[in-house]
Every structure is written in structure tokens, then in C-alpha cells.
Amino acid sequence: MTTRIALVGDFNEAVLAHRAIPQALAMSAQALGITLDVRWLATDTLRADDDLAGFAGVWCVPASPYRSMDGALLAIRHARTRQLPFLGTCGGFQHAIVEYARNVLGWADADHAETAPDAARAVIVPLACSLVEVAEPVIFRPGSRIAEAYATEWIEEGYHCRYGLADGFRDAAFADGALRIGAVDEHGDVRAIELRDHPFFVATLFQPERAALRGDPCPLVRAFVAAAGQDSLPAGSAGTVRLDPADR
Fold this sequence. Notes:
Layout: E1 2-8, H1 16-32, E2 35-41, E3 57-60, H2 69-81, E4 86-89, H3 91-103, E5 110-112, E6 121-140, H4 145-150, E7 154-165, H5 167-173, E8 179-184, E9 190-195, E10 201-204, H6 219-228, E11 240-244
Parallel strand pairs: 1-2, 1-3, 2-11, 3-4, 4-10, 5-6
Antiparallel strand pairs: 6-7, 6-8, 8-9, 9-10
Helix pairs in contact: 1-6, 2-3
């Protein structure tokens, strides 16, 4: 049985994370013994839920601003409301926050300062210190899904990021406990979020996929693939990935 994964983002060979993602998925598929059918879906091709039909998991990938913010938000909402395993990294984290603010909290004017610098309610804003090509410790919250995936208390991860969660949004975002903090940095700033009542919905400001470029396993990517391929486990094979470049 083949598990279909949608990579939502606008493929660019120059983006380090985009080169790392296929490797991270291949390593995870091999470790789990499942077959993946991976499709890159450009954000400006996503206009309705039907555009995501048949996919068992959605990964909203780095390299925003996207060609279509609406397309990215559609994919995130689709995964959230249809209980599909979801992973968001870097730009995927930022847009998962925007989608939650708009469609769960009802803040229709919630926006991203990168694309709407004059927004009255920017929930994603410039970081006090840029995290472009920076590696820093990430501290996992006990009992979180991401802590379970890494099976450790902290790890050093790499970033390529200038935007993060607005301080003014933090209290409202986590008030009801449905959205929870999965990880923070050494100063307590949010570096990962997850949804409590969802099979798998995790988003990180850092880029865990980069580990694959060093030949290291990516625990969070493996956990995402395992959740998406639940019906395929165990397959009893070495595991493979089919990647269709036509959908980039």
C-alpha cells in the first residue's frame, strides 16, 4: 500500500530545505518500511479541498512568502479540519498560526507581517534577532507529541527564519489548550506548536529536515510519516519514495 504525501510550497532547487525534504522522507520511509508517493503542490494551484483529495498527509514546507498565501492556508485548514497528519516547518509554522487565528479564533484580519507589514493584527512578526542560518537549542515540553518523537529533553536545530510568533498573540492562542506549545528556545520563545485533539498536527519554526543533509535521521519527519502511513504499517519492505517533479 502506498501513502501519498503532499508537499505544499513553491519548489526552488536553491532552497536548502527543499533539497533536504526528499532525503528526510526517503530515510523515514526506509526506516518504517513503507512506500511513499510524494507530490510537490505549488501554492497557486490550490483553490479547493478537492485539490488535496487522496493525500494521507500534508507538509507545508519552508520558503515563504508563498506565491499564494490563500493556497497555503487552504492546505493547512484542510489537514486540520479533516484530521490529516500535518507537518509545518519554518514558513509552515508561521502560516499554521495565521490559519488558526483566522479560522479557529475568528480573527479574520490576522496576518503575516512579511506580506502585510501594515497589518493591524499581525500574528507573525519580525524576530528580535534573525535566525537566518543559525543553530540553537530547542527545549521540548514534557508530554508533547514532538518530545515523544525526539525522545529527549532538548536538541540543537537549524533555522533560516526572520519571523516568529507575536508576543501579543501568545496568550490568546494557547488559552483554551487546543493549541499547545511543543517546544521553546532558551528564552522561552515558542519554537513549535501542536494541536491536542488531532492525530498529528505539529509545526516548527526550525527546519528538522536539514538533518538528512548530514545523513542523520529526522525523528519528527519519521513521526509524521508514521502517522500518515498508519494503515501501511508494517509493510515488510525496505521502503521507497516516488517523487513526481512535474508537480513542483
